[in-house]
């Protein structure tokens, strides 16, 4: 919170867009619960992620057109990519999977089943327990 206040002080007495530090702070709250990790306000990976999120949000109007006009789903993929910007969804999915996979791999390497720190630790522990289940696992990896 102190870092956020310090960053907000840079924007006093002048009109400004919502600072990226606020967006990173919101991500940090969620990611602290999920992966027990914080990001710096100048972390390039997070800033790139947020910029991409802004881009995909700006194109949301086009992305929902097939929901209202299902016939658009029958267009070839290259046309949907060109006109409806569908490639944003594929890219965003890949970015999210890579981001999450990296965190899961780090957690798997440092997992202490007796001292889970966050949601990922609990999930990995539960996955390991389910592997012992004679009825088959309830959770899947990958």
From TrEMBL:
Domain of life: Eukaryota
GO biological process, one term: xenobiotic metabolic process
Keyword terms of this UniProt record: Iron, Metal-binding, Monooxygenase, Oxidoreductase
Keyword hit for Metal-binding: yes
Classification via InterPro entries: Cyt_P450, Cyt_P450_sf, Cytochrome_P450_fam2
GO molecular function: heme binding; iron ion binding; oxidoreductase activity, acting on paired donors, with incorporation or reduction of molecular oxygen, reduced flavin or flavoprotein as one donor, and incorporation of one atom of oxygen
Protein name per UniProt: Cytochrome P450
Pfam family, one: p450
GO CC annotation terms, alphabetical: cytoplasm
Source species: Meganyctiphanes norvegica (Northern krill)
Family: Belongs to the cytochrome P450 family.
């Amino acid at each position: 919170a102190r870092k956020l206040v310090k960053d907000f002080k840079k924007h006093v007495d002048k009109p400004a867009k919502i600072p990226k530090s606020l967006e990173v702070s919101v991500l940090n709250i969620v990611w602290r619960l999920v992966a027990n990790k914080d990001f710096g306000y100048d972390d390039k990976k997070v800033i790139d992620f947020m910029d991409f999120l802004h881009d995909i949000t700006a194109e949301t109007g086009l992305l929902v057109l097939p929901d209202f006009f299902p016939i658009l789903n029958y267009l070839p993929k290259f046309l949907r990519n060109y006109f409806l910007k569908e490639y944003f969804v594929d890219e965003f999915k890949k970015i999210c999977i890579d981001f999450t996979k990296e965190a899961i791999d780090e957690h798997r390497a440092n997992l202490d089943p007796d001292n889970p720190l966050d949601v990922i630790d609990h999930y990995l522990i539960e996955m390991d327990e389910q592997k012992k289940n004679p009825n088959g696992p309830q959770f899947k990896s990958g």
